[in-house]
Design brief:
The structure holds two protein chains of two kinds. Chain A is mainly beta. In chain A, 0% of the residues lie in helices and 50% in strands. Classes of the chains: A mainly beta, B mainly beta.
């Protein structure tokens, strides 16, 4: 099973600040890494697919990078509405796995 | 509008059974693989099961293998999850989710396993 480890677990950030969340895979997964945003009491939403491809309708301040075992989700100029928990997810192999989540709080 | 609507959740005793349903609309259901993903209270996301568009390929997480059965009816635009021998650790919100990576999520249905 591929284990995804996100860091940090929690981040408190001021609006307009830049946020960086990392996801490390226990073995190489190529670019089969996706990022989701989940706000309280809502279903998750796809932000980035295949490491760096922005999903339709997602604000341009969200971007992704990486390949192999190390991946990054960047939020440029954080907005209040970005308060949420962010998850990485791999589709390289079964079982599909998710990172433990990174909660982003607005100061 | 593309939509997934789950139903069938509820309170069940340990060892009991439950069948979840997911009604799809707004897209060609038979063209997509489908998944069930769950989230225990206050916890992260856990993939449960996947089924290919024609039901040819079916996969399960080890935690539910032998107890849960995923199925679909393309004529009815519906996805199902039959859950048997339920345990307390199966308590979660269960999401119906389209494709890989998941690009559409349902609103979730809550399953509580408790005596």
């Amino acid at each position: 099973e591929i284990v995804l480890t996100q860091s940090p677990d929690f981040q408190s950030v001021t609006p307009k600040e830049k946020v960086t969340i990392t996801c490390r895979a226990s073995q190489s997964i190529g670019s089969s890494l996706h990022w989701y945003q989940q706000k309280p009491d809502q279903s998750p939403k796809l932000l980035i697919k295949y490491a760096s491809q922005s999903f339709s309708g997602v604000p341009s301040r969200f971007s992704g990078s990486g390949s192999g075992t190390d991946f990054t989700l960047t939020i440029n100029s954080l907005e209040a509405e970005d308060a949420a928990t962010y998850y990485c997810h791999q589709s390289s192999s079964l079982p599909r796995t998710f990172g433990q989540g990174t909660k982003v709080e607005i100061k | 509008e593309v939509q997934l609507v789950e139903s069938g959740g509820g309170l069940v005793k340990p060892g009991g059974s439950l069948r979840l349903s997911c009604a799809a609309s707004g897209f060609t259901f038979s063209s997509y693989s489908m998944n069930w993903v769950r989230q225990a209270p206050g916890k992260g996301l856990e993939w449960v099961s996947s089924i290919s568009s024609s039901s040819s390929y079916i996969y399960y997480a080890d935690s539910v293998k032998g107890r849960f059965t995923i199925s679909r009816d393309n004529a009815k635009n519906s996805l199902y999850l039959q859950m048997n021998s339920l345990r307390a650790e199966d308590t979660a919100v269960y999401y119906c989710a389209r494709d890989t990576p998941v690009d559409v999520w349902g609103q979730g249905t809550t399953v509580t396993v408790s005596s």
